[in-house]
Write a structure and sequence with these properties.
Helix content is about 40%, strand content about 10%. By secondary structure, it is of the alpha/beta class. The strands form two sheets. The protein has an eight-stranded parallel sheet with strand order 9-6-3-2-1-12-11-10. Helix 1 links the parallel strand 1 and strand 2.
Length: about 500
């Protein structure tokens, strides 16, 4: 579909200010929406919202359907009589600019457990009815997810394929026995999901009522240690005796890494998925579109062909491209759900076949200004080469900030030439270069322009969100409430109005 001319900001909710060590769906989220409105922005793009696993990455989640309970606002549980102000006041001193995930997990787990105990003893029929209705509406994924998480906790966090075989292989008798033993823990997991969905949908309603649309993110692949793989093992290329992947996902050597990126996600058994009409994918897209207005599909090119790496390889270099039935999949989703508000992340190794798949379905692709200056004036990431049906970014969550990237252009001749080209192109004098980049993207013919908040604030490498192919120090950046100054709001609003967004 074609999107109207608009602009917005990229910010994951974990990066919001709060008193509890991590951004959440409380007051600061609503204040950020107000900032978007006052600065004339119509879009808020977030990263995947699922419960994070290894490395705290939103691209490696325990479920493709569940929400990240770390985003639950404790403050919003006080009026529900699920927590007290006294309990919130016991929060330890957290860093304001970065997340200490271990410390946050410990504190929030205590709070949410206390909230569940209070909910279990409350005689509030309205809350109970609301919870029961949620469990009924979401049972298509919620029952399995809650069981998965309860079993995972009872197995000290071990991956599902390391549980006893009867549970790993989901034998009905074993599941029924553990469902009785873990009844309270299963209910607890469902309670947490109810709180997340309740708070997120209230925030979405606030956004939409003020003309702000939410752009969500679907990673094409999911984590091996997830409720989805445990529940649907035949839909993945696994050794079905051990539960281990036979091949894993990644990308070949590229701009980000000389040895490629070894993601480690299991690969879909597309033939098996096609036999049932891609039912799991249809459920996944339908569910996500209830939480957001637009979907960005991460690694869209994987719908045309996947880079399959033999399990156990130390790098992604030994992989091969294996065809995927993207056309059949997307047609099935469109037949079931209608017009698809999808953005195709088409960065990296892109072939004419990938472009045709994207264009045949009318999905806008992505352009990233930081990628524009390493060659010549024919570079497709230069704004004069855009067409209207693209989404233009100064940078993404996988890039350094614009200021950090620009300051790194030093040393060898090639990087100095890239720096000089960038300065000439955006007509910058090396002062406030981030605003010159923002102007170039917002003034372009691209229907959609998205700016990471770090670039609006003019922050350097210390505010980078993620370094691909690394396993630590990522996803932890947060801004401070005082960073959203009237001057920043005014400058962003003026640029947005000037160029008709």
């Amino acid at each position: 579909m074609t999107f109207p001319r608009a602009s917005g900001l990229l910010l994951h909710p974990t990066s919001l200010p709060s008193s509890f060590g991590i951004g959440d769906l409380g007051e600061s989220a609503y204040q950020f929406v107000d900032f978007l409105c006052s600065s004339s922005q119509k879009l808020w793009q977030v990263l995947p919202l699922g419960p994070t696993g290894y490395g705290d990455s939103p691209y490696s989640c325990y479920s493709a359907f569940a929400g990240n309970t770390l985003l639950i606002s404790p403050q919003r549980l006080v009026p529900m009589n699920l927590l007290t102000e006294h309990e919130l006041a016991a929060a330890p001193a957290f860093k304001t600019t970065h997340i200490d995930f271990e410390k946050v997990y410990e504190f929030k787990s205590q709070l949410l457990s206390a909230a569940f105990q209070r909910f279990s003893s409350l005689n509030d029929l309205n809350l109970r009815a609301e919870f029961d209705e949620f469990c009924c509406e979401q049972r298509v994924w919620l029952d399995d997810y809650a069981m998965f998480q309860a079993l995972k906790v009872s197995h000290d966090g071990k991956a599902w394929n390391e549980w006893e075989p009867s549970l790993a292989h989901r034998e009905p008798t074993a599941l029924a026995e553990h469902a009785k033993v873990l009844r309270d823990q299963i209910s607890q997991q469902k309670f947490y999901q109810w709180l997340f969905f309740k708070q997120w949908l209230e925030l979405k309603s606030y956004c939409n009522a003020r003309g702000v649309s939410l752009i969500g993110d679907i990673p094409i692949f999911i984590a091996h240690d997830s409720a989805d793989v445990w529940t649907n093992p035949r839909q993945f290329k696994l050794d079905h005796e051990t539960g281990k992947p036979l091949v894993v996902a990644g990308v070949p050597p590229d701009y980000f890494s000389k040895t490629g990126q070894l993601w480690g996600n299991p690969i879909y058994d597309w033939e098996q998925m096609q036999r049932d009409g891609f039912a799991w994918w249809i459920k996944r897209v339908r569910s996500t579109l209830k939480l957001v207005d637009v979907l960005r599909i991460d690694h869209f090119r994987g719908f045309e062909a996947c880079w399959e790496i033999p399990a156990g390889d130390p790098t992604a270099e030994g992989g091969t491209w294996v065809d995927a039935p993207g056309r059949e999949l997307l047609s099935a989703i469109r037949t079931e759900l209608g017009t698809l508000p999808i953005i195709a992340e088409d960065l990296g190794v892109i072939t004419p076949e990938v472009e045709k798949l994207r264009d045949d379905f009318g999905f806008p692709g992505m352009r990233v200004l930081q990628f524009a200056f390493g060659s010549d004036s024919n570079n497709l990431h230069l704004p004069h080469n855009y067409n209207a049906n693209v989404v233009a970014y100064t940078g993404t969550h996988d890039n350094d900030t614009t200021l950090g990237w620009f300051e790194s252009l030093d040393g060898d001749d090639a990087r100095l030439r890239e720096r000089e080209f960038a300065l000439k192109y955006v007509n910058s004098h090396d002062k406030d270069v981030h605003w010159d980049f923002i102007r170039a993207v917002i003034s372009s013919c691209a229907n959609t322009a998205i700016i990471p908040l770090q670039d609006v604030l003019g922050l350097g490498t210390e505010a980078r969100m993620n370094l691909p192919n690394s396993t630590s120090g990522n996803w932890s950046w947060r801004f401070r409430e005082k960073d959203l100054t009237p001057a920043v709001q005014k400058q962003l609003s003026e640029l947005t109005k000037l160029y008709g967004r």
